[in-house]
Amino acid sequence: MTPPDYEYLRKLLKDHSGLDLSADKQYLIESRLLPLSRKCGLAGISELVQKMKGGASTIVAQVVEAMTTNETFFFRDKVPFDHFRDSIVPEVLKARAARKSIRIWCAAGSTGQEPYSLAMSLKEMSAALAGWRIEIIATDLSQEVLEKSKAGIYSQFEVQRGLPIQMLVKYFKQNGELWQINADIRAMVQHRQLNLLHDFSQLGMFDVIFCRNVLIYFDQDTKINIFGRLAKSMEADGFLVLGAAETVVGLTDVFKPFPDKRGLYRPNAARAATAAPKIAAMAGR
Amino acid sequence: MKTCLVVDDSGVVRKIARRILEEMGFEITEAEDGEKALEVCKLAMPNAVLLDWNMPVMDGYEFLGHLRRLPGGDVPKVVFCTTENGMDHISRALHAGANEYIMKPFDKDIVAAKFQEVGLVELSEPTPV
To answer: What is the C-alpha R_g of chain B?
Structure first.
């Protein structure tokens, strides 16, 4: 890939999706865009760039989609889902005992593995959640992946990465080589197309936000901006779950790390009540 | 070092599985059918068994039944690895005491994920994007 082509793609992706590629991500572009260029009947990336410079907006959309769609699998990284089961849900059960409702947002829902993993986890705890209203909202930049998520149909390869076999037996129906997640689990997840760069306050307030492996693509200012808006969309006693390689530390103090639980954060109460803390501290003495 | 018995009538599959599992830190023994696998287990129980279903002499399903009735035969984690990909086969395997189930074709990621699932290997570092 020529340096001018790389720069062109960097700028295009930044403008359209906020994706902020550092100078050394040629491999990422090649691995995502070479298959796309073949699909479009083009010889390679420079032909793809030529088409876009010529004003092919459908190709622009496909390039953005190819670059921002993440490989994902059920119960990815496992630990966040252990936190969800062992810490987050028990806390929410206590905190929302009167209201009996839990609202969860998967901010990079992708092809559905993450929201459905959460839905299955909640199903496993259904005894404790009897009578509760459960909402899981899955959003993604890409309409195409949302459609796949809604359908809930996965290849044999996809259902073998991260999904325990007992869960496959329990929550999926087989259709030839494909596996579809059961209708009652699908019904637990609502899908919305959403660009995190845009206002998302209309989604309402959440108890839990999973926002994993998506902020990694944004530049620092954009990250700070999104964290600020995530904090406003979260209940004061809510939980934020980030990807393994992501953190708020050094970027913002609207969230603070949850002790001893990697990847888990909570709104920073001290920051929310900026005017009051000194008085409160004195009153406590 | 943890031990894994690879049971498959295909030498090629055994070789691929051996390479993947050795890389994961297992010491490998091989058997080409269920009967030979039982002999191995009677001498020394492995920590894990990667088990094909369809084999001559004694198939994987029958082997599992015998294994679970041996003294100490409840210890090994048994992961089926077979082209049988029907829900009926999976259910039968689980009822007979299988711990996990791989549908062929498989790769390193699938084997690693399934072995993690049954607690045979430590959780690897989370995958970066």
So the answer is: 14
Residues A118 and A203 in one domain: yes
Looking at the complex, does the CB of residue A243 fall below 8 Å from at least one CB of chain B?
yes
Last residue of a domain, one of A68, A99, A120: A68
Nearest chain B residue to A245 by CA distance is B128
Nearest CA in chain B to A171: B87
Written as six digits, the tokens of B121 are: 């290997």
Q: Which of A169, A216, A243 comes nearest B90 by C-beta? A: A169
> Smallest CA–CA separation between B113 and chain A, in Å?
6
Residues of the domain holding B62: 3-117
Together in a domain, A86 and A53: no
pLDDT-flagged residues of chain A (< 50)? 273-285
* Overall average pLDDT of the B26-41 stretch: 97
| pLDDT reading at B124 higher than 50 | yes
Query: What's CA A84's distance to the chain center, in Å?
Result: 15
* Beta-strand pair A234-242/A264-267: antiparallel
Which residue of B lies nearest to A67 if distances are taken between CA atoms?
A: B129
The two structure tokens encoding residue A265: 């954060």
Output the domain CATH number for residue B92: 3.40.50.2300
